[in-house]
Amino acid sequence: MKKPLLSVRDLGRRFGSEGDAVTRVLRRIGLASPAAIVRAVEDVSFDLYPGEILGVVGESGCGKSTLGRMVAGLLDPTSGTITRPRTPGKALPTQMIFQDPFSSLNPRKRVKSLIGEAPRIHRIAGPGEIERYVADMMERCGIDPSYADRFPHAFSGGQRQRVGIARALAVKPEILVCDEAVSALDVSIQAQIVNLFMDLRDEFDLTYLFISHDLGIVEHISDRVMVMYLGRVVEIGPVDAIFDAPAHPYTRALIDGVPRLDRRRKVYAPIKGDIPSPLDPPSGCAFHPRCPLATELCRTTRPAARDVDTGHQAACHHMDATTKEGEPKWPATLTG
Ligand code: SF4
Question: Scanning 72, 139, 171, 275, which has its CA 20 to 30 A from the CA of 250?
Fold first, then answer.
């Protein structure tokens, strides 16, 4: 069995503060309002294997971007651990590609400086070779090296995202965390950047954590998919299993909300209800206020992750009742 490149265990991130000692005492005796703590990510565990693309999906506010920032090392967790690769000569093993190619590049720096700064500082390329190194990175990411002296404003959105990718690749990372990396681009450009990601994976032996709300792109690019709801992982498994036989009602509802050619006659509708506030998450299974299969057990007890199949896990009390010999027994619709 392959050894994971990166392991995440019981990872949590909370925002807000419990207040000072006096406030905590007053709260205990009911004289102060409860602390406003947002549990953005809670008890998340998974492994990332060399060369794979792990897609992370879920509605806005499910914690996927916070998770990505922690994996990229831009945000410290409040609990849990992340074990990153320690390959000799790799100073920065994890890099991040951001959603907005307009604000993620310093507008006052020329492209050659944006791409060349980190490899120069980390001595990946010496002073005599940095120009050639930057040109090579630009070429590999589909940017004409003769544009190296230009500023970011001279590029289109797709070209800027290519600059962002070249900048990340210039420090020879092993893992790229892509946070909605194609969401801000036109549809035709999205396809080009997704293809670029796939080509670069082979060329640079890259591993991806690919965060997106676009299930179509995630299905196309991923080897495995992780589904998050209100800061927790509710299902994880191979891409075919997740899209063809989802075990969790939330995954099923997400997938049913996406138009597909093979479901042309279906009426599409968003998942019922709003995503609850992470300031005050529901008891038991956090999806129970929106789940048509919810029972009293769901309202009181949080479901643990269980095996559905090899490498496929879901956290739902009733997935056995809804799945028989691989054929899900769902109500007529979970959406609308
Ligand atoms: Fe629905 Fe219950 Fe499963 Fe949660 S545990 S997804 S409420 S059936």
Answer: 72
How far is the centre of ligand 1, averaged over its atoms, from the C-alpha of 231 (Å)?
Answer: 16
Name the token pair of 65: 């971007």
- Ligand 1 contacts CB of residue 298 (under 6 A): yes
Query: Which is nearest to 162 in space by CA: 117, 207, 197, 116?
Result: 197
Does pLDDT of 332 surpass 70? no
| Closest ligand 1 atom, residue 249 Cα | 6
Phi-psi region of 68 (alpha: psi -120 to 50; beta: other; left: phi over 0): alpha
Please give the backbone phi and psi of residue 259, each rounded to the nearest 5 degrees, phi first: -65, 135
Phi and psi at 165, nearest 5°, equal: -70, -45
Please name which of 227, 244, 248, 245 lies closest in space to residue 236, comparing C-alpha atoms.
Answer: 227
Mutation choice for ligand 1 from 228, 318, 323, CB with most ligand atoms inside 8 A: 318
Q: For residue 322, which atom of ligand 1 is closest to its CA? A: 8
- 330 secondary structure, DSSP code: -
Decide: 286 in ligand 1 pocket, CB within 6 A.
no
**Quick one: average pLDDT of 258-277?**
67
The proportion of the chain whose per-residue pLDDT surpasses 70, expressed as a percent, equals: 89
The shares of helix, strand and coil residues in the chain, as percent rounded to the nearest 5, are: 35, 20, 45
Q: 93: which 2 tokens?
A: 């093993």
pLDDT at 269: 56
* Ramachandran area for residue 142 (φ above 0: left; ψ -120 to 50: alpha; else beta): left
d(CA 256, CA 75): 33
Q: Which residues pair with 210 in a beta bridge?
A: 55, 178
Structure tokens at 5: 């490149």
Residue 288 CA, closest ligand 1 atom number: 7
Q: Cβ(44) to ligand 1 under 6 A?
A: no
